[in-house]
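Suppose you are handed a protein chain with no further information: no name, no annotation, nothing but its sequence. What can you learn? This example shows the usual starting point.
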Amino acid sequence: MICWILLLIKLTSCVCAGTFVVNVTQTSYQAEENHNITLDWTFTTTTHSSTNSVSILCELILDQKTSVLFHLHEGVEVSESQDEEFSGRVQFDKDVLREGRITLHVSRLRTEDSGLYLCEVTTESGSSSDKCRLNVTAAVDQSESQRPTERPEPESRGRIDLYVGLGLTAAGVAAAAAVAVLVRLCSASRRSIKSAD
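A reasonable first move is to predict its three-dimensional structure. Written in C-alpha cells, the prediction is:
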C-alpha cells in the first residue's frame, strides 16, 4: 500500500512539474578543435517570472567525470563553481534569458570538450533539464597537406635543369670575362716591360 501511495505522489509531482519544460534547440553538435560553438536551450516562462529567480546549471558529463560549464544561482553567475577547463572560454548571453533562452558560447574548443551537455533550469514554476551531444574533432594539420612531394614533377625538373644551365652559362661568361681581363693586363704589362728595355 505504501508503494502505491509513493508512486501516486511521484506521478502527481511529475504531472504538476510538466508545465515547466526545458528543451535543447539541437540534440547534436559537430565542431572542429580551436573553433567556437553556441549551445542553446529554451524553457517555458510566465509573464510574472523574474530572471532573479532563475537558477541554471550546465554540465559536461563524461564517463568518469562531470564538469561545470556554467552556473547561475537566482540570477547571479557563480563563476567559482565553473571547472577550470572552461574558465575564460564560456560566455552567457543574459539578454535572451528573459525570453526563456539559455545561450552559451564556448570558444577555443578542445577534443576533450566532446561529450554530453546537460542544462538544468529551476524557476518558481518548477525544474527541468535537457541534454545535447557535442563532438569535437581534431584540427587538420595544414603543414602536412602543404608538404612538397619527394620527387619533383617532370615539368618542374625541366625548369630546374634550365635554371642550372643558365647558372652555369652565366658562370662561364663571368669566368671568360675574367680571363679576358687577365690576358689584357698581362699583355699591357709585357708591353710596358719591353718598352722600358
